[in-house]
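Hey, resending since the last one bounced:
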Amino acid sequence: MTTRTRRLTAPLAAASAALLTAGLLAGAVTPAAAHTGTDAHDASEHARTWAKDQVLRPGCRSYAYRYRVSPPSDQAWGLETFLVGPGGKSVASGALHSGSDRRKGRDTFEFCSTSTRPGKYKIRAKLTYYVGFTTHDGWADRSRFRLRRR
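The structure tokens again:
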């Protein structure tokens, strides 16, 4: 499994620190409010991912997908993405957040063809956002695409 990494810059470090502080404060002020709802909370109206069918290329490559996030508040948000391959095997993951990413855009999963096979893939996305000191999180609808050999 390959994970996409970003270089830590001053603005990214500041945004990450703010997200961490907000999360810690929310837990310190009201432990019960740190998570609202159940783990199956539906965030499909606030987040979406999609990808078109692609060709599995030799070697280690980047495979594009698109995302859109529209949380109900202007506060911090984070979108964790997980690429699940045929048979439920986890292939790659990524993370986007309000400190360094736009609400709508393009991102990539990076993985190698030697450890990956063609077939149907799913993108799972978990959105976390804040309203005041309350954390809200939930899963967006799964999106699907196919990776095929040339």
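Residues 47 and 103 are 9 Å apart (CA to CA).

Sorry for the duplicate.
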